[in-house]
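User: Structure with NAP, tokens only please.
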Amino acid sequence: MDMCLKNKIVFITGGSRGIGKAIAITLAAHGAKIAFCGRSKFDLDATSEILRQKGAEVWTFQADVSKPKEIENLIKQVTAEVNHIDILVNNAVTSESAPFDQLTDDMFRYHIDVKLMAYIRIARLILPYMKSQKSGRIINIGGMTARVVAPLRITNGVVNAGIANFTKQFSNYAAQYGITVNCVHPGYTVTDRVMQIFEREANESDKKLDAIILERTKDIPLGKLIKPQDIASAVLFFCSPMAGMITGQSLAVDGGSGDAIIY
Ligand SMILES: NC(=O)c1ccc[n+]([C@@H]2O[C@H](COP(=O)([O-])OP(=O)(O)OC[C@H]3O[C@@H](n4cnc5c(N)ncnc54)[C@H](OP(=O)(O)O)[C@@H]3O)[C@@H](O)[C@H]2O)c1
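Assistant:
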């Protein structure tokens, strides 16, 4: 199906690994040109090589989005090099799991800076370019902790709820410029990083990797683990003409695992 992405320029934060990488590969497969950032040069190079081998035009930028000054420099570099941005995918995160009594102010602040504030700061800096084009798509990757309790992921929950709220509030402002803003909430998604966690769990317990994977699958009503590609498909939809009249929405890609009823 033609998703009308040929030669569109996409900027993805955290496009070098996991869900961001799957989004980069998926959008590139539909003809988009891909700019993306991350901190590790090794991962940036490895993913850009994969994209180039598939025939995509690619730009990489090394930056830490938890730092406002680095974001300013990053967006200056991106806009100078790629000229304009049709689609922004806010995705980068690093997070830690800990029970409430071990979460310090600094841990909350870091998580807010690296994800919620970075999404807001990057959207703010890219907005003038989209405004002048009178079009644009912004997709914020949130997380199901916005909607369901996750005792070891309270910082994620606070941040992802903020992202869902920012998505709706910002969409209301951006609509006048022909820009849509939507959010995708991944459920527990098996990226390489998550697979390493499963492997560590298996090594540190008497359970086999297969048993751990089966346990995780049981939590998902559709009976399959969620893959990065599943999240990328939802992003592709929001980038496509099919989603032209959809804005301010948060879509869960969770295999039915979120118990909350959202009207
Ligand atoms: N996987 C899941 O189960 C799951 C569930 C719910 C929500 N999500 C959301 O999905 C998004 C992607 O998660 P993921 O699981 O794909 O994560 P991941 O595999 O750990 O990849 C994170 C990406 O962000 C980049 N990144 C991390 N910190 C950064 C920083 N300070 N500055 C710039 N780039 C940074 C990483 O590259 P570097 O480390 O090289 O910087 C990497 O490219 C996140 O918003 C996450 O909250 C994921």
